Amino acid sequence: MSNIENIITNLRSELRSQKKLLSKIENQIEPGIEGSLVIRKVSEQNIRYYRYIKGNTPIEYLNSSKTELLSRLAQKRYDEQMAKTIRERINAIEKSLKPLEKLKDRKDLAHIYDDMPKELKQHIKPRMDENEEYAAKWQSKKLLTNSMEKKHPCKTLRGEYVRSKSEALIADRLFARGVPYHYEPMVMLTGRPTLCPDFYVLNKRTKENFFWEHLGMMDDPTYCNRNMKKIRDYTDMGYIQGKDLIITYETKEYPLDTNYIEKIIKRLLK
């Protein structure tokens, strides 16, 4: 998730919270109690309370016999001030969201260079923000890839060939959401065996790397057992599902769902 999207998400969340709080306070404001509370300080030890009703009604002194009315007016004063302040916050958040919403489809600054006339691009050195620059270098790394048979290749939006329609679905969602990835790379880590995940992906914001394995035939016992060992190997090396390891599953009865992929991307990779 880009910084702009983070800000929008946080503002929306705060807006919902403030509206919920406002509704709660408005429902608790006592109806039918007229007037407002006025405080008069006679001396350091002597404070008097009055009820003032707009119009020609005179001020009413709230003596010790009217403590209940004093409490109700004090609560009303507090609740009305709370409601007023919350409405101001809601108004400020809504005004802030409007211009930010226009930027939400521009998740990064790379589009500025992309949108430049092609005649000018040769004269321009792109100035990306730190996250985009890091992601570009990460994506440009030349990693050895696992060899694959291309009897029934599926082509992705990025123009590469993957083993299955489900892997194409994952690749296309990553590409569409601007998540850098390598397909079937041979990842060599210091002091550990070379890993060959289905996908090696990057969270641009946090700069965290994830291995993504898709298990597409979990209703096949032989396939299932072989891949359960593979997942066990990841665990033995310290990779934990949901932390730095993503695993998706499917069977013939329960195929991979696009919404499921989107939720994973939103939760771990944006």
Give the overall silhouette.
Answer: elongated
Beta-strand residue fraction: 5-15%
Distance between the termini: 3 Å
> Helix share of residues?
40-55%
Provide the low-confidence segments as ranges: none
H and E order: HEEEHHHHEEHEEEHEH
Count of discrete alpha- or pi-helical segments spanning 4 or more residues? 8
Sheet with most strands: 4 strands, mixed
In what order do the strands lie side by side in the largest sheet? 6-7-8-9
Please state the structural category. alpha+beta
Which radius of gyration do the C-alpha atoms yield?
Answer: 30 Å
**Total domain count:** 2
- Number of distinct beta strands: 9
SSE topology sketch:
Layout lengths: L2 H26 L7 E6 L5 E6 L7 E2 L5 H35 L8 H5 L3 H4 L8 H11 L13 E2 L5 E2 L2 H12 L4 E3 L15 E5 L4 E8 L5 H16 L8 E5 L8 H12 L1
Parallel strand pairs: 8-9
Antiparallel strand pairs: 1-2, 2-3, 4-5, 6-7, 7-8
Helix pairs in contact: 1-2, 6-8
Task: Tell me about this structure.
This protein is of the alpha+beta class. It has 2 domains: 3-101; 141-269. The protein has 8 helices and 9 strands. It has helices at 3-28, 67-101, 110-114, 118-121, 130-140, 165-176, 221-236, 258-269; strands spanning 36-41, 47-52, 60-61, 154-155, 161-162, 181-183, 199-203, 208-215, 245-249. The strands form 3 sheets. The chain has a 4-stranded mixed β-sheet, with helices on both faces. The chain has a 3-stranded antiparallel β-sheet with strand order 1-2-3, with helices on one face. A hairpin with a 7-residue loop joins β2 and β3 (60-61). The protein starts with a helix and ends with a helix. 14% of the residues are buried. The mean pLDDT is 84.
